[in-house]
Amino acid sequence: MDGRQRPVKRSLQQELNRWIMIVSGIFALLAGLVSGTGAFFEARESQDIHLQQIGELIVSGLLSSGTTAPGDDPEERLVIQRLQAGQSGVLPIAADHADGLYTLDLQDQRWRTLILTIAGQTPHARFAIAQQTEIRDELGWDSSLRSFFAVLLLAPLLMGVVHLIIRYSFSPIRALAIQVDQRTETDLTPLSDQNIPQEIAPFIASINMLLQRINQVLIQQRRFVSDAAHELRTPLTGLSLLTENLAHAQNLEETHQRLIPLQKGLARMRTLVNQLLSLARMQGRNSSEPQPTALQQIVQEAIAELYPLAEAKAIDLGMIQQENLTVLDSEGGLALLVRNAIDNAIRYTPADGKIDVSLFAQDGRAVLWVVDNGPGIPAHELPQMFQPFHRASGNQEPGNGLGLTISQEIAKRLGGEITLQNCPQGGLIFCYCQPLY
Question: Could you tell me if 356 and 385 are in contact, meaning their C-beta atoms sit under 8 angstroms apart?
């Protein structure tokens, strides 16, 4: 078993519940703070109004000095004290204290105090009306706690509602997952995005595009397998007939003559199998990390390797332009690409023909041209030349139609591009472009 620790799958429902609980707690604290602050100021304002109303009663003579109005709770008692110099009252308030509303610390307690002067008397009568602030603070705390617990108690209800909403919103996704599980391995039809949440729709669209690409690859693989079977069946049939003819040879000389085409057929079969393996290997695995490579050296080595074939047909093969360019290469892919390009040119160029190879830099890319004066390719067949086993019509040269397919696969892996075009004066231009390193 794999000893590595696998990442734990996160639950969207649990994430939402956790965040709802955190946010609800924060909002409960904020609500308690705001409510408590508001209740504190309201209680203070209410207490001030109450003290002012008592002051108006004193001014009107309905309450006399020294009167104390006790409440049901000692903390609610109201102290009315006349301020006179040299006399002490219930609360130690200076007789010369200025008029107005104050919060005073008296007898180790906080008192909200209204001091007023009644004009028209000689001397002026001055009174202090006081009540403890503790009742005001209790009102603020009670309001804060009520707000906090109200929000806190509503959090589980909110989580339950969110849970039901999420289950309902994700029900089309669960139904879609069931449909996918019931599909066969050959069913690559696009997934339906009906009733899918807008946030999930891009993911479904990406899956559909992936399914489309997979379907195209499978179609190409089926075509490739079919074409490969056809290409293998034809030479195998020929080899079988050559083997039967070899068995009926009457003497050693006849055996030797019949053995030559059999050997050639086996060589072609070996070449075809090697090309099939190379193509399958490139299409089925990731290439190694590309490394900087001198493209000029690769082209020169390919020309030197294939020059005897050109010389045998009296073809003028050479480089008319070459620059020292560095590009990325992986597993010798560029060498195979260049050899395929020059080898094809030699194959289809008539005797006494000419092949010009050019290597230069243009717009930040390395450009390789292989130009021959052969018959070229019909214009309508140029886009099909990179398909496996496709060969131009009227082509009599031996081959399997895999060279350009392999070169195209190499170009894709290296970020390059291959184009084919006919020369106006006849012949074909093989052009390969790849970003410079």
Answer: no
The pLDDT value recorded for residue 328 is 94
Q: How many CB atoms lie within 10 A of CB 74?
A: 8
CA–CA gap between residue 206 and residue 213 (Å, rounded): 11
Beta carbons of 266 and 239 less than 8 angstroms apart = yes
pLDDT in the model for residue 127: 86
C-alpha triplet 56, 136, 114: angle, nearest 5°: 30
365: left (phi over 0), alpha (psi -120 to 50) or beta: beta
Lookup: tokens for 396: 């009599």
Q: What is the DSSP string of 18-46?
A: HHHHHHHHHHHHHHHHHHHHHHHHHHHHH
pTM for the model: 0.51
Listed in sequence order, the DSSP H helices in 182-318 are: 201-247, 252-284, 295-312
Could you read off the pLDDT of 226-256 as tens digits, one per residue?
A: 666 666 676 677 777 778 777 777 788 777 7
Answer for the pair 87, 99: CB distance below 8 angstroms, yes or no: no
The full set of domains in the chain, from first to last, is 14-142 (no CATH), 201-284 (1.10.287.130), 291-435 (3.30.565.10)
**Could you tell me the maximum CA-CA distance found in the chain, to the nearest angstrom?**
161
Tally the residues of the chain. Answer: 437
| Structure tokens, 251 | 């003497």
Q: Are 47 and 131 in contact (CB under 8 A)?
A: yes
Residue 340, token pair as written in the block:
């395929």
Bond prior to 197 in cis (omega within 30° of 0): no
Q: What is the pLDDT of residue 298?
A: 94
Instruction: HSE, CB side, 13 Å, CA atoms: give it for residue 212.
Output: 8
Q: Is the distance from CB of 129 to CB of 78 less than 8 angstroms?
A: yes
What residues are paired with 421 via a beta bridge?
A: 429
Nearest to residue 405, comparing CAs of 429, 377, 384, 386? Answer: 386
Give burial (CB, 10 Å; 0-12/13-18/19+) of 321: exposed
Q: CA 403, 404, 405, 411 torsion: positive or negative?
A: positive
Nearest to 182 by CA among 193, 191, 170, 195: 191
Backbone angles phi, psi at 73, to 5 degrees: -110, 135
Q: Which residues of the chain have pLDDT under 50?
A: 1, 67
Q: Please give the angle made by the CA atoms of 128, 134 and 140, to the nearest 5 degrees.
A: 125
